[in-house]
Amino acid sequence: MIAGAAKLLASQGATAIALAAVDSPAGALNEQFANAGLAATSAKVLGLTLVPIEAPDYASYAATVARGSDGILIGMNSDQAGRFVQSLKQAGASQRIALTVGAVPPSMVIRLGAASQGLLVTSPFRPIEAGGASNAQYLADMKAYAPRAKKNVFSQGGWVAVETFVRVMKARKITDFSPANVLDVMGSLEDFDAGDMIPPLTTNTTLPAPYNRLFVNKVMFARIQNGQLALIDEEWHGGLIQ
């Protein structure tokens, strides 16, 4: 998603992208991911600003990433990302800002209010607000079986995992559910249609480390408009990790 967010910024005209991430080993890897997403573009990452989780004020960090950039990529969790966006807006930053969908769940969009307008977002799943057959079934299942659960990218991931397994087993007419056979079947998919919440799924190729656990190398591009996540286009944007 970070690689996709970098590519999304480039597609919207950003050429000098400042990256802010949580100060942790995982956060430090975001620069590598962002550079991977920009490999086929003319845009560049200006640098990485690591922000401590316990920082009482984000103003100085926001000023750093706003200086000399025309795009800002935020690699943080929801609470920290929300505070960082607020700091950027309060400082008058006008750059394009991109985040991952997990950083701006509906609750955070409400908290940000007008500050969320125009934020660019990448998602590994078709956003709930974008509809589609899979999301319709997901919402119906959530209502029937888990009405109190939050409807967000995390519950989408749980739902689509089970849905994909069921679709594969039915399509392959599997009757042997031994661990070895299930692993063999699930590891031999090529452009498998798992519904429109994710792109066709391929599991029979391996990306180089540290990306070798990824089965989906594509994201959707979206923008927050009037408090809602709206797709920029209907494409699954790939080529993020080489």
Walk me through this protein's architecture.
By secondary structure, the protein is α/β, with parallel strands linked by helices. The chain folds into two domains: 2-124 and 218-231, Rossmann fold, CATH 3.40.50; 127-213, no CATH class. 37% of the residues lie in helices and 16% in strands. The protein is built from nine helices and seven strands, in the order αβααβαβαβαβαααββ. It has a seven-stranded mixed sheet with strand order 2-1-3-4-5-6-7, sandwiched between helices. The longest helix has 19 residues, at 153-171. The chain starts with a helix and ends in an 11-residue tail after the last strand. The mean pLDDT is 94.
Task: List key phrases describing it.
7 strands, 7-stranded mixed beta sheet, single chain, Rossmann fold, 242 residues, 2 domains, globular, alpha/beta, 9 helices
What is the fold's blueprint, element by element?
Elements: H1 2-11, E1 16-22, H2 25-28, H3 30-37, E2 44-51, H4 59-66, E3 71-75, H5 78-90, E4 96-100, H6 106-112, E5 120-123, H7 133-145, H8 153-171, H9 179-186, E6 220-225, E7 228-231
Helix pairs in contact: 1-3, 4-5, 5-6
Write a concise synopsis of the structure shown.
The chain has 242 residues and is of the alpha/beta class. It has helices at residues 2-11, 25-28, 30-37, 59-66, 78-90, 106-112, 133-145, 153-171, 179-186, and strands at 16-22, 44-51, 71-75, 96-100, 120-123, 220-225, 228-231.
